[in-house]
Design goal:
By secondary structure, this protein is α+β, with helices and mostly antiparallel strands. The chain has one domain: Sufe protein. Chain: A. It has a 3-stranded antiparallel sheet with strand order 1-2-3. It is globular, with a radius of gyration of 13 Å.
Length: 123
């Protein structure tokens, strides 16, 4: 049902936790399934130097959060804004159709954190 990569990110999630005094924080949720994702960003010179997440949800939600943080760390804000849920799914070598919404949440959480960062900058 799940790829080895999904199982790896679920069993050994990367970048879990919070960043105190984060430059940007985004939280999204899906009322239908109950998943909630929160992404924290640390940004220096327009580069995401650190990213953490806290997710309350199923294994797919945790895996998509984990891989999304890996995908944007070290990227510029503009590069990270281009992250799509399709790229998240491809990086995880697929998700069951009923779990594709988790990849959308991961994309939305990253974008919400970036929007918060930009709002704090006054951009």
């Amino acid at each position: 049902m799940y790829s080895d990569k999904v199982m790896d990110h679920f069993s050994n999630p990367r970048n879990v936790g919070e960043i105190e005094n984060a430059d940007g924080v985004g939280e999204v949720g899906n009322a239908h399934c109950g998943d909630i994702m929160k992404v924290y960003l640390k940004v220096e010179n327009d580069i995401i130097t650190d990213v953490r997440f806290k997710t309350f949800g199923c294994g797919a939600a945790i895996a998509t959060s984990s891989v999304a943080t890996e995908m944007i760390k070290g990227k510029t804000i503009d590069e990270a804004l281009k992250l799509t849920n399709k790229e998240v799914v491809e990086s995880l070598e697929g998700l069951p159709p009923a779990k594709l919404h988790c990849s959308v949440l991961a994309e939305e959480a990253v974008k919400a954190a970036i929007e918060d960062y930009k709002k704090k900058l006054g951009a």
